[in-house]
Amino acid sequence: MKLAVVGATGLVGQEVLKVIKERGFEYDELFMVASERSVGKKLEFKGKEYEVIGLDKAVSLQPDIAIFSAGGSTSLEWAPKFEAVGTIVIDNSSAWRMSPKHKLVVPEVNGDVLRIDDRIIANPNCSTIQMVLALAPLHKKYKVKRIVVSTYQSVTGTGKAAVDQLMSERSGDESTKVYPHKIDMNALPHIDVFMDNGYTKEEMKMVNETKKILQDDSIQVTATAVRLPVMGGHSEAINVEFEKDYDLNEVREILSNSAGIVVKDDVANNVYPMPLDAQGKDEVFVGRLRRDESQPNTLNMWVVADNLRKGAATNAVQIAEYMAVNNLVY
Ligand code: 2RA
Fold this sequence. Notes:
Blueprint: E1 2-6, H1 11-23, E2 29-33, E3 42-45, E4 48-51, H2 55-60, E5 65-68, H3 72-84, E6 88-91, E7 103-104, H4 107-110, E8 120-122, H5 126-142, E9 144-153, H6 160-170, H7 201-213, E10 220-227, E11 234-242, H8 248-256, E12 261-263, H9 275-278, E13 284-291, E14 298-305, H10 309-325
Parallel strand pairs: 1-2, 1-5, 5-6, 6-8, 7-8, 9-10, 12-13
Antiparallel strand pairs: 3-4, 9-11, 11-14, 13-14
Residues 125-127, 153, 157-158, 191, 202, 307 line the site of 3-amino-D-alanine.
């Protein structure tokens, strides 16, 4: 099995390598791939030194799987070139997510849609992944009717330059400008670009991707996405209305028994999910479970996950594992 990590020098690419190592994902050959300006750089991985290669060279090596974390335009240009040599591309950008020809996958939720001839597979947006993972088992039992979600997103979701902006603002230097405003001691209700309908692209990703992954266009979603001076995890306040009524203890039990979810919900002891605790972990943490007393069949929950792990790298590596374990790589 020849594995390529495309965007190996970036924030998500580096996390992909960590996850590959931690999960013991097996390969025979590994290619570290990045843009021209990183070609020739040396990267150390599992005690071995790798020289970063360019995309052209990587295509010529015909990897079986390439995990792309290199942005939308690189993916639009290069994923089809890898596809043409038979590579399975697992793509972290938004380039292919809503294409009707391509699968959008969270393995625990809809891994069963994957087939042997899938060649470009889209990894969903980070804030969508943690939300659908927490909602899917409840959707199965009570059927989700409408979701109202507000996000509290970490600067790592924007990338290294945003982490630099936050850290330099904290040391008194306000010259680094990734966001249109200061991020330290602030909250920006603005993630990705604004669209004609007044929502941001991030908010519309949560609307559209949720319907596609849960395979249900009737689900109504409305989102407000907010960037906070937080490192290492996205949090979400989710208000979900179901078709059927639920029992709160049963909800806890369903979530506790669902793959990839950890329930942290013991308010008497101040136990609830927080980004600081989620950082570096692969699971999605759920807490503050309580009935919305203002309308029937409605639940409030607080959902936290490391956006670079389950929101990006871990989910992508899990897709690769799913393909390998189910003999979908040839
Ligand atoms: C963010 N959703 O947090 C993006 C990253 N994919 O900005």
